[in-house]
Amino acid sequence: MNGQLQSESLHEPKQNNGVCWAEQPTQTCLSACDLPHAPPASGDPPPAEDISVDDVFIAVKTTKKFHQSRLKLLLDTWISRNAQQTYVFTDGEDEELKKKIGSHAVNTNCSAAHSRQALSCKMAVEYDKFIESGKKWFCHVDDDNYVNGRALVKHLSQYQHTQDMYIGKPSLDRPIEATERLGDNKMKPVNFWFATGGAGFCVSRGLALKMSPWASGGHFMNTAEKIRLPDDCTIGYIIESVLGVRLTRSNLFHSHLENLQQVTRSEIPKQITLSYGMFENKSNIISLKGAFSVEDDPSRFKSVHCLLYPDTPWCPPQVAF
Predict the structure, then answer these.
(1) Is 63:206 a contact under the CB 8 Å cutoff?
(2) Which of 40, 71, 211, 305 could form a disulfide with 77 if both were Cys (CB 3.0 to 4.6 A apart)?
(3) According to the annotation, is 296 in a ligand binding site?
(4) How far apart are CA 288 and CA 168, in angstroms?
(5) Number of domains in the chain
(6) What is the pLDDT of residue 74?
(7) Full-model pTM
(8) Mean pLDDT of 219-245
């Protein structure tokens, strides 16, 4: 089980529960409450833009060794409700996967290694495919995330896709401090917030287009090497440090780096992403008395799916949650 619970996200050079730390930390530090917060989920403000799930490009990052485990679970659950909007970015050919989702299975030809370079290689392909798609929103998730498409669309509709929007949840309580390599052995300290890829994040098309000089083609990997940090940190660097756009924090995104037991059953329909994994050496899953036992549904994703979509053919009928 442990191999299956390991996240496809990487944070280096130094690691602490999987979060990014820079090579030369400084004393400069901001509080997490300094981040702009998304509007509260309750109260339902009128939408700023009328969008549908068809306006969203959902990129799932995975690796071939997880196709039969993690990815199959996603295909059976939330991807089955968002198949036309979801693209799977992997590192190997898989004819069975192609039969299921066709051209939405993207072999990036990136290395299968769990390295900074391999992860940045996949993100570079995700970015280019999104730009090519013409869709209004780019949302990245990992292969241990459940995506609630209805909650996602509802949240994104609070913003204009032409605005500069970067939405997600930091895994740190302060900005990351990094060293930017300027050439000629010159270096400059930088600090910025980033949304952890393990919880998922979204970028508006208006902002994504501005990222192009640092993200399109081979530029993304070059940018990642400049700060020697992985893919999600590099996204934050381009948006916050280079373009000067601040991360909008949303607590509706969830990664395995947080205590998922704190998400209550009544709150599940409002959440955008959920996850599963290990937390402080214990199984870290949503606490949900649902359609399946923990033995039959260790991630709790099947039970979550039956809560959100009780008409799913394989969900037990008339389940009392």
Answers:
(1) no
(2) 305
(3) no
(4) 24
(5) 1
(6) 98
(7) 0.85
(8) 96
pLDDT tens-digit map of 251-261: 999 999 999 99
Residue 264 lies in a domain: no
Residues 6+ apart with CB under 8 A from 209: 131
Determine the structural domain holding residue 150 and report its residue range. Answer: 2-14+49-249
d(CA 275, CA 295): 17
Of residues 10 and 189, which shows the higher confidence score?
189
Question: Could you tell me which residues are beta bridge partners of residue 166?
Answer: 203
The tokens describing 125, both together, are 């392909």
Gap between the Cα atoms of 281 and 267, Å rounded: 25
Is residue 98 scored above 50 in pLDDT? yes
| Low-confidence winner among 36-40, 81-85, 148-152, 256-260 (lowest mean pLDDT) | 36-40
Name the average pLDDT for the chain.
Answer: 87
Residue 166 pLDDT class (50, 70, 90 cuts): very high
Q: Is residue 228 part of a domain?
A: yes
Which residues does the annotation mark as catalytic?
232
Q: Is 256 annotated as a binding residue?
A: yes
144 annotated as ligand-binding: yes
What values do phi and psi take at 7, rounded to 5?
Answer: -75, 150
Structural domain contains residue 210: yes
The Cα 49–Cα 289 span in angstroms is 36
Residue 32 clears pLDDT 50, i.e. is over it:
no
CATH for 198: 3.90.550.50
d(CA 21, CA 34) in angstroms, rounded, equals 19
219-227 vs 116-133: helix crossing angle, rounded to 10? 140
Does a structural domain hold residue 254? Answer: no
d(CA 216, CA 10): 21
Residue 70 is assigned to a ligand binding site: yes
Q: 31 pLDDT exceeds 50?
A: no
Neighbours of 67 (CB within 10 A): 19
Contact between 194 and 20 under an 8 Å Cβ cutoff? The reply is yes
